[in-house]
Write a structure and sequence with these properties.
Elements: E1 28-33, H1 37-41, H2 43-53, E2 59-64, H3 71-74, E3 81-87, E4 90-96, E5 99-104, H4 109-117, E6 123-126, H5 147-154, H6 162-175, E7 182-185, H7 192-205, H8 209-218, E8 224-227, H9 235-245, E9 253-255, E10 260-264, E11 280-282, H10 286-309, H11 315-320, H12 322-335, H13 347-358, H14 367-371, H15 374-392, H16 397-410, H17 427-437, H18 441-449, H19 452-455, H20 463-479, H21 481-489
Parallel strand pairs: 1-2, 1-6, 2-5, 3-9, 6-7, 10-11
Antiparallel strand pairs: 3-4, 8-10
The chain binds 1,4-dihydronicotinamide adenine dinucleotide and D-mannonic acid.
Length: 490
């Protein structure tokens, strides 16, 4: 079948929305590190919408620091790909035009550094996953002993890490007498702009105090809250999209219709008219971040672990199970009091909307995918909330079950005794603890709570928390996830 490309765009069915601007005239303005599924279904779509409102030099150059990457799929398509929105009411298909090219760092790091240093590069955005920041999740600080950081300090012009690449690009711009780009973190991190600023400054200060001072004085690191549920694309999705397009597309993305983007409006060299595309340009992102990271992502992670253990492959299946739907209500009742609601938002309505989004049968978001990298996710999704509830002397039963379910998951064995493919930067450490503790919940919970990079030094000393977690873990091992969650509701 013929391939989607600039020359075949005109042969698409009329029902397929395509870029509403002169794509042949589009030039780069943004470099995006981590051009995975989410950025192509969120930032790139918002940028297409902004370009339709007011055209400008805001094309996106994708940059992959790791293999596999999208370059080999997107280059033959001139960067074009389909975005298939799956709503319960049926599919909606559009071709996204904002991505112009993809560079692959392992192949030619100098070209990538040069792209960041180019005068036309005004924004460098990131979705490199929580683990891509080489930081300590409990503190947000740079791990100077991280293998990629050690490499990049020794090879500053051939960086392997996102932080090393940002600093290399900023160093080149300073040397060329250019101003910095705006570094726009779009990952699910708490205070993501401030965390990124600290990581970049700390890395630069390890080699060049003048550069660190220049970045601190001139750089821009806006905070953001990003939201759209975008599961990994499957071969079945690719076949379905080909059938709908009548053309082959090697790199479609799948997502829900819902999207939200709150952005702190501090940019040093301009930005696309994203506000014309429905983003919320704000001075303070924190209320949006607390609401989303705690209520959506805290529920997502808890449901992913409990649902996986109970044998549910997707979030829709797990949240469609009445036992886990009731668990979510109990969890949100513990989270909502810790969230300073954004103006005009009723958090109980937000929770109802989340449940409907989770239960969307058209979105197959695997519990296994969400369960990944829990060591990098738990602090901002569950542990910050738990700290506030402990301080307030408020119940934490559902929150503690979310943590206990993570422990049962990373023990590496499911309820049928089968091995779990645990993906996490700390997976080897989890395996060591699980081997030593076996199914002894007290021993395993104590060992995992002792991981300071996740739980800090305060939570392991909170007896109400440690007892709740080890008690839930004991019940999970003895009775399974569904019975444990059901017992909470009774
Ligand atoms: P993905 O797996 O499709 O893409 C991840 C990208 O990060 C890839 O380009 C990969 O090469 C890169 N990457 C992974 N580890 C890295 C490392 N250590 N250093 C540098 N680059 C690295 O995942 P997806 O769906 O695009 O999600 C990426 C991030 O976007 C998430 O971790 C989250 O922070 C954020 N996000 C995702 C949402 C979703 O529903 N998928 C929704 C909201 C936010
Ligand atoms: C998910 C998020 O994979 C995960 O950890 O919880 O990617 C989630 O889909 C998004 O944050 C939704 O906006």
């Amino acid at each position: 079948m013929t391939r989607l490309s600039s020359s075949t765009l005109g042969s698409l069915p009329a029902s397929v929305r395509r870029p509403g601007y002169d794509r042949a005239a589009l030039t780069p303005g943004i470099v995006h590190l981590g051009l995975g599924a989410f950025a192509r279904a969120h930032l790139a779509e918002y940028t297409d919408d902004a370009l339709e409102k007011r055209f400008g030099a805001w094309g996106i150059i994708g940059a992959s620091l790791q293999r596999p990457d999208q370059r080999d799929r997107l280059k033959p398509q001139d960067g074009l790909y389909a975005f298939l929105k799956r709503a319960p009411s049926g599919p909606e298909l559009r071709i996204i035009g904002a991505v112009l090219d993809v560079l692959v760092a392992p192949e030619n790091p100098a070209a990538l550094v040069a792209r960041l240093a180019a005068p036309e590069t005004r924004i460098v955005s990131l979705t490199v996953t929580e683990k891509g920041y080489c930081h300590d999740p409990a503190t947000g600080r740079l791990k100077a002993d991280h293998l990629d950081i050690v490499h990049d300090l020794a090879n500053p012009d051939a960086p392997r890490s996102a932080i090393g690449l940002l600093v290399a690009g900023l160093r080149a711009r300073k040397a060329a007498g250019l101003g910095p780009f705006t570094a726009l973190c779009c990952d699910n991190l708490p205070s993501n702009g401030q965390v990124l600023r600290g990581l970049v400054r700390d890395f630069a200060a390890l080699t060049d105090d003048n550069l660190a001072s220049w970045i601190e004085a001139n750089g821009a690191f806006p905070a953001t809250m990003v939201d759209r549920i975008v599961p990994a694309t499957t071969d079945g999705d690719i076949a379905e999209v080909a059938g709908l397009l009548g053309l082959d597309d090697a790199a479609p993305v799948i997502g829900e219709p819902f999207r939200q983007w709150a952005i702190q409006d501090v940019f040093v060299a301009g930005r696309p008219d994203w506000h014309e595309a429905g983003t919320q340009m704000v001075s303070e992102v924190a209320p949006f971040e607390f609401m989303k990271l705690r209520m959506l992502n805290g529920a997502h992670s808890s449901l992913a672990y409990l649902g996986y253990l109970a044998g549910h492959e997707t979030v829709a299946e797990a949240s469609g199970d009445p036992v886990f739907a009731r668990f979510l209500q109990g969890l949100w009742s513990e989270i909502i009091p810790t969230v300073p609601a954004p103006q005009g938002v009723a958090l109980t309505d937000y929770a109802d909307a989340l449940l409907a989004r989770f239960q969307n049968p058209a979105i197959r978001h695997r519990t296994w995918q969400i369960a990944m990298d829990g060591s990098q996710k738990l602090p901002q999704r569950l542990l910050g909330t738990i700290r506030e509830r402990l301080k307030a002397g408020a119940p934490i039963d559902h929150l503690a079950l979310g943590v206990a379910a993570w422990m049962a998951y990373v023990s590496g064995t499911d309820e049928k005794g089968a091995a779990i493919d645990v993906r996490d930067p700390l997976a080897a450490e989890f395996k060591r603890h699980a081997t030593q503790a076996g199914r002894n919940a007290q021993a395993l919970s104590a060992a995992l709570l002792g991981i300071e990079a996740i739980f800090g030094t305060d939570l392991p000393r909170e007896e109400r928390f440690t007892k709740a977690v080890s008690g839930h873990l004991d019940t999970l091992f003895a009775k399974g996830a569904k019975a444990t969650a059901a017992a909470l509701a009774s």
